[in-house]
Amino acid sequence: MVRPAVILAWLLAATAAKAHEGPHVELAALDAALERRPDDVDLLLRRATLHRREGHVQASLADLIRVEQLSPGLRELLLERGLTRAAAGRAAEAEADLGRFLEGGPSEVALVARARLREARGRADLARADYDAAIRIRPDPETFLARGRIDEAQGHLDRAAAGYEEGLRALGGAVSLRLALIRAETALGHHERVIALADQAMAGSSLKADWLLVRADARAASGHAEAAASDRAAALREVDDTLKRRPSSLAHVTRARVLLALDRPAEAVSELEGAVARSPRLTDAEALLVVARRRAAEAPLPSRHEGRSAILALPLALLVVAAVLLARWRARTKRIP
Asked: Do 64 and 48 meet the contact criterion of CB atoms below 8 Å apart?
């Protein structure tokens, strides 16, 4: 008789080889294996996990009921059931399962899942403690951001900034953490620190327009209007050069952000309308277009001193959102074979 471990190993190898075909292939393989061994707990747990990831929470829960019948004391059951109940919106039951699982030892996955449940239910201090414990097990950008989000919401900006700094040191300068730190330091009025962070980012980046805008906002806020105008002009030159060499809708969106920072909203509207028409899935471009149209409608006659206003710079919060989306797109395109 073939042992369960052998069947499981064969199944994992087969599904890994076909991973590019998607989860439906893996589910079909698990279904076939469970027809032969319907009481195999490992296979049931694996299928429950896959169902949960695909959003099939009821199918996942059905597998987990069977796992509990076969192996009621299995610790892994508590974790998977907690994650599935959380996905099903059964927060209290999910938190109870995750808490029982964590009684047996720390787990980054369980801590983060419980932290999200606690945060959503307004138990911010307990959620922060879970995020903090998860970071000690495995530093992750999203966990640093979640912990910092709680600190910022509670008005602890110094603590938030310190946490983002910790994340940057641990993770080698993750863009999302650098942007979050810039947001916190800006709120604290630490403009020189923001300038230094932008300079550090530009030193390691071939495309500097986004960071030039960040530095320009900080320079404007610290009273250096001419230096801010110079940064915005440099950002426009760079993006124009990029469009000549490698035109793309994303580059046009970046150009629109620069134009808004230069108080040229009508031109920004034109850039964004073209980008949205070419690439309807650019949701950040649609959001920015709303802002640009409002700015264009409110704008007086064109100023003779275009680009020199430190006050009319694009709000940093909007820049941060756009920069994060741009960074994520760049990361995704690098992974496309």
From this structure: yes
